[in-house]
Amino acid sequence: MTKRPDLQGIRGLAIAAVIAFHLDGTAFPSGFIGVDMHILRAIRIFDGCDPIEGTGTQCQRLFRNFYMRRFKRIVPLYALLIVALAFIVPIFMFRPDVIKYCQDVIWAATFSTNIHSILEKTDYFHQLSTSGVLTHTWSLGVEIQYYFIVPLIVLAHRKLSETFRFSPLLVMLFIASLVYHLIASPKLAFNSLTARVWQFIAGGLAHEVSTSLQVFSWPKFKRSIKSIFKISPGLADQYVEIISDEKGTTDEDVEINDGPRTCKFWPIGTVASYLYGRGVADILSIILLVLVICPSIILPVSVYRVVAVLTTGVLLVLGDDECCQGFILSMRFLVYLGDISYALYLVHWPMIAIWKDYHDSIPLSLTGTVVCLGVSLVVSACIHHAIEQYFIRSKAVSVSALVGVLYITLVVSLHLDVPLKMNKSLQTAFRPELASAIEWNERESHNDYHKHRPFEECLDDLEVSHMSRGYVTSKEHFACVWKPRNSTGRIEILVLGNSISFIAIRILHSIIERNFPQIGLLRLFPNPSCAIIMPYTGYNCTDYLNSIPVLVNNMRPDITFTIFHEYFSDPLLREPLLNASTDAAAAGFIKFLQPISKGSRVLVLDEFYPSAYQQRQESVALTLHKRLIRNKPLDDLKMTYEFFSKRQSSYFARLDLLPFPNLIRHNISAAMCSEETGLCWWYNRRNMHSYFTDQDPVTKSLNYGISSLELISSSSVTNDLNYKWKQPSKNTSLQQTSSITLDSKQKWIQPSKNTSKWIVVTSIQSPTEDVKRLASYPDWTLVVVGDEKTSDDWNLPDVHYLSLETQAAMGFGSVQRLPTKSYTRKNAGYLYAIANGAEWIYDTDDDNKPFGKGLEQFEYSMNSSRGLRFVADGETNSTIQDTLFNPYRHFGRPDIWPRGFPLEHIKNHDHRDGSYRLCHEHRPPAVQQGIVQKDPDVDAIYRLLHAEPTSGLDESFNQFAPPVILAPGTYAPWNSQNTLFSRSAFFGLFLPTTVAFRVTDIWRSYFTQALLHAAGETVGFVPVNAIQRRNAHSYLKDFNDEIEVYDKSGEIVKFIDKWKCHAQTLDRCTIELAEEFAARGFWGNKDAQLVVHWVLDLQQIGYVFPAMRNNARSDNSIGNDAELLRNCRRAHVSFHDDLSLNTPRESRAAAKINNFGDLKEWCADSPSVKSKEWYFPTPRELTISTMKNKTLTDNHNTVAIITNNYQWKMGMGLLQRMYEANFAMLIFCGHYPKQDRNAHLNNYPDNMDKGDVKFPKLKRPISYIDLSNEEVHEGYFAYYCLAKVEEMKLQNVNGKIRNVFR
Known about the structure:
The chain is α/β, with parallel strands linked by helices. Helix 3 runs antiparallel to helix 17. It is elongated. Mean pLDDT is about 80; it is low at about 45-50, about 225-260, about 695-710, about 710-750 and about 1235-1245. This is Acyltransferase.
């Protein structure tokens, strides 16, 4: 008696498919069909017990022998495995895993793992990512359970055959089971015996057909068809003889006849015998191989199973003819793999599960794959030859006794908690400070959320079935409704999505419970494993998605959250977007969201985030739990933002196509990717909690949904929080009002004065003289914001005064959340001015006085400007220090720094050569800061060092210095005391409330600059236009209030310089950056929430955010040095207060004498000058001579231009000493090629400070303008220098510009 090699080959291919799937389910997603192939071969018993002619004794003997053989082959080895695991699992795995084993082994020991999965409603494919070592025993449970019902099937078949000529029982069972398999839920279709019976029967039918065709003829073929209904009696004795052979291997592994085989249809060795015999078998084998190794599942899972079963069945029939046994399935390797398949099936999964858990390797690494596969093969081969064969050949009584001992051992060990005690004794000690994090992540990693409600108060939703036309989600615990007991409003929220929405609602519930009493109802209506466009039909996703529009239309929620995990989302959303107008994925996305948007007041769409499932399959919480205990590093629990953005670039491009005005895109990735530039972490590095499970308010996972939830209490959602919206709105977010209308019951009517230019101040005093002066400007409208200490009768003609009552009546969500007794009440004034049509807002204080040109010093052009532009060290951003601009240095005071300038950069900071551009045309600045005379805005450190105790500071600045614009990529702090905002920058008026008074406007300046740069807008500084005399106060108190400025300014500059917005519009970027500021601790979470209301308030009053602009820094480019009429060119300016417009005559005279003295010393030291023959006048003679020269006495406010027609540096220091003290400033003009900062070249302007052995060194850095050779050739076009100097917009010059030629 010999084995059929092709049958063992099928078994080998089946186990190879299963192992491949378990090793890497991503590479071999359809490997699970190996189980279906094996089930088909599991039993062929019906042909041994004829229902009519067979005797009862014959059937009894047949069944007895069959079950004994099955028992000896399956049960002993199985019992040995589960007992061995009772002692192996505690050694290598953690306590939760040991507990899981102790729970699972009870079901596994009774061959009912599949029933356990059904009762627990767990998913087999999900369990593969857990540490369950007995997950694979479900298939043995199904097989053993079928063996128990076989006698019932045979008995029923026998009775029906006695009554009817042909019994259709088998065919009916086959069809009924197959139909149930196709319509049942995925979990039932996979685990239940009812859904697998058709596969067992298919194997029996295939064997019956094959045995009926041993001698082919048409009459025999007809009888083979009939035998499906009535089994031929002639084969009973043969089969009984075979299966009663205890010395054989298995009943499936033998041939029916011992004699020589012959081909039924064609002679052996002919071409036809291969082409029509083994060739067909090999083709079918290749089909099975293709199904197994296919890298993606392109058809429903049920189709794969049906194809696998039919193909395997045909192979069983063909293989009964030796000429039809294919070469592939008869290969020695596959045959041997089939021989050891049972041992290999038992061993391989525990090996993989333990390796994954111990080495934290999900998916398996290459090393893990090789080790697990190699060890499993070696151990299985040893078990097969040494143990399995021994059990098969042993007497039944001996095997039964051994099994009894093993089961008793298992029961006793479980009763005495041996595995748990053993695990506890072997547990690794961990650091005590990690106990809390370990406990948290352990609880979350083993939280079977699908088994219970997301939170206790979420109850059965009795209305949702009616509202969705009878649809019920596939998991009964998923859908629920929460109606807060202490609710003060009637706002309703609907949460839709797949499994991630179930997790998200726990966090949303926590936030709502603490912060939003206005919520009257929160409804959860998800369905697991569903995608938006191509739903997985096995989870009733199509019915679920079709029910959503019905539910939304009936419920009319105020806010609808759509939360779909990317892991289950359709890959079409990530396909390249080639044509937006014809893109099927975008159209499907819009089609899905359109009824939700129409039926909801606000639609919140959670954007995809850098999920760990993109790179690993294991829960991050579980990974953290294991690594924290084992003290393993956590550095790899992250994703690069570059990987995430590239992967999702097409998805975000499709989001930009969504046309819904009430859509809010919730950017979850911002918080995850804000801690470190370019990296997105999957856990909170402060408390070691995994994201999206942590509800601790100090962690960023709380930000999940919090910005969107701020919409709930915003006036853009509803003006009356108790008003229940019933009708959809055509425009729910923009341009609802154009101005603020105050209630007529208020104390007094606001004045009618309303211009396009507004001044905003806050005051707790009666109208000061400075406030009255501001109110007198005819082209300006003044609004004063009051506070608790402001007098109730505050009044001033033509001034808009906003009392606290008036502010509350305006209905702005952000104003309602402003603290009292706070400088940030100014936010109310900003919104008031914007709502009343402001185009310009001057931000100042009630003790600030315009000076000189005053407000006219600012530039009010909306289209084009010209002048100096400060860039970051030429065209490279090498260091953060290069990006910083000190406005006081520009205006002649390098010894002073503004409040908020990073202290760590003060000592070595300068505006190095190459940092300026002179542009003929550029965009005017969106924000302009004016310099303040006498007591400028400096920090407490400078005041403590330099201010007088009673009179404060008395500082002045160079009044020739021109205005300057800071290009994108450069930064300077600015305040709220003398600042002009154009409409394009109104979004940046927001003052944060969670930081100190001395910090709020500085943080605003950095926050706004980052956003302005994203829109291609800039900040500018203008010369002195205000004066301030501060009251004496405690500088030490200021110092304490500014600690945060000293500590974090540099960190903020470093952050915003690298920050890139993930969103596509500036309003969303504003919210995103606010959340990142909160996440980094620059301000509190309340400010992040307040910014959401601020944005919504701006949208409510019709403010339109500027458009985003990419590559704004390219505006800094100077182009080709030789180009004629360049727009921007290199330039440099250097101003000093010792030679300003207000420099005393005595000081200027002293400077002249000192310069002359330098020249005398130079002449004495110069080897090429016969200084001894020179006569040098005395100081008195020099003064008299100078007084007689009108050029040297009347041009102190005149600019001297020195043109260079070649890049000489010689004589620059000499010219400085000759002319500097006599003019407002010297400007060198010529062509000076750009040099490498690291190259030691002598060309101008490099190394200018080193001078020359024949000429004196520079007295101070020079000011220059670079022209092309064509523009200054031979001096013929020196007038071009005059034009460029005029473009610099120097201040307080008399317009008569002299030229000195070299």
